[in-house]
């Protein structure tokens, strides 16, 4: 795996982030997607570097918490711009990362194992917005296991309870 300074990358992403940093698509979501992805990668054989970068970039260019057409494409463009500056990735890794970002909201379930792992890592975090992922919409066997689904759900529920309490939501 290529080493990079996560703190510097995250600081840069925070400076340009346009919605609530602690909201549904902010840093806490990215951290859970990263954790989910790395958990799955150990079983899917996915490229861990791409999975981690996906967690940081896939929602980094959102302009709202709801429907946001094009945010994945914008995130991919930002990743291409920052490659070689704030992190390093091969051309093949960038192709995988950008494809995963560009299509993460499209509902696809077939493709490269690294891309599928990225999408599953994100989908497993739908619990944060009250949606239990259906196994038929998950791409990998690793994500469909009871253990993976329960582990991801626990992470998301802890965040949701804290978020709802801070925002007086039930």
Structure description:
There is one protein chain. The chain has 170 residues and is mainly α. The chain has a single domain, classed as Hypothetical protein af1432 (Orthogonal Bundle). It is built from 8 helices and no strands. Helix 2 runs antiparallel to helix 8 (146-166). The longest helix is centred in the C-terminal third of the chain and has 21 residues, at 146-166. The mean pLDDT is 94.
Please outline the helices and strands:
Blueprint: H1 6-16, H2 27-44, H3 48-57, H4 71-82, H5 91-103, H6 113-123, H7 141-144, H8 146-166
Summary of the model, kept short:
The chain has 8 helices and no strands. The chain has helices at residues 6-16, 27-44, 48-57, 71-82, 91-103, 113-123, 141-144, 146-166.
Q: In CATH, what is the homologous superfamily? A: Hypothetical protein af1432
Beta-strand segment tally? 0
Rounded to the nearest angstrom, the radius of gyration is 15 Å
Please tally the helical runs, counting DSSP H or I stretches of 4 or more residues: 8
The sequence of SSEs as H and E is HHHHHHHH
Brief descriptors of the model:
single chain, 170 residues, mainly alpha, Hypothetical protein af1432, 8 helices, 0% strand, globular
